[in-house]
Design brief:
This protein is mostly helical. It is built from 9 helices and no strands. The longest helix has 73 residues. It is elongated, with a radius of gyration of 35 Å.
Length: 198
């Protein structure tokens, strides 16, 4: 190698080392400038992960305790302390238990209270049971008009039967036509259309 090539090679090495040191200095400045923000970000992530773990653990404990309280209520349904414990641990599970008790005891008053439950399914079922128990066509119609009603088709069929019993066949036909073909009650609807309504 010639002397000129050696000098060029040394220059290239010095340039690359100079660039490396320049980048190291820039990185050091960046770290110094944003050190607190980076530490804060790491602390926030650690706190978030720890909070999530604690929340998950706490939820599992609540579920366990609520299930224990539910088992105790099955043994002694009159225990006021266990009822309040279940209600504080899981309002939804308490509402479901209350609904089952109301149905078992045919308790209209309890169903009236459950109509305003925050547990949507319980609220809907209570509304249906109240409308069905009343035998009131208007209440059944109001229930069946709700878009998300669980027993919508059954309410329509019940209403049609009430119309049949009242001798109002046109209204019964109208109610039965509202039940979709895909409904599990379609065979009942067909039978009522052919045999029950003349």
């Amino acid at each position: 190698m010639s002397l000129k090539e050696n000098i060029d090679m040394v220059k290239d090495e010095l340039n690359s080392e100079e660039k490396f040191f320049e980048k190291a200095v820039m990185t050091e400045r960046f770290v110094k400038k944003y050190k607190n923000m980076m530490i804060g970000g790491v602390v926030v992530v650690v706190l978030f992960v720890a909070g999530s773990i604690f929340y998950s653990f706490n939820e599992k404990q609540n579920i366990k305790e609520a299930n224990i309280a539910l088992a105790e209520l099955k043994q002694d349904p009159t225990s006021v302390s266990v009822k309040s414990k279940l209600k504080s641990l899981s309002k939804e599970l308490y509402d479901v238990w209350s609904y089952s008790q109301a149905m078992a005891n045919n308790d209209i008053k309890a169903l009236q209270e459950l109509k305003s439950s925050k547990t949507i399914i319980v609220s809907d079922l209570a509304k249906y049971e109240l409308a069905s128990a009343s035998g009131d066509q208007d209440k059944l119609s109001d229930y069946s008009m709700k878009q998300d009603a669980i027993y919508k088709d059954l309410a329509l069929v019940q209403n049609a039967i009430l119309y049949i019993n009242a001798g109002q066949t046109k209204k019964a036909h109208k109610e039965l036509r509202k039940v979709p073909q895909s409904s599990s009650l379609n065979k009942v609807v067909t039978a009522l259309m052919h045999y029950g309504v003349k």
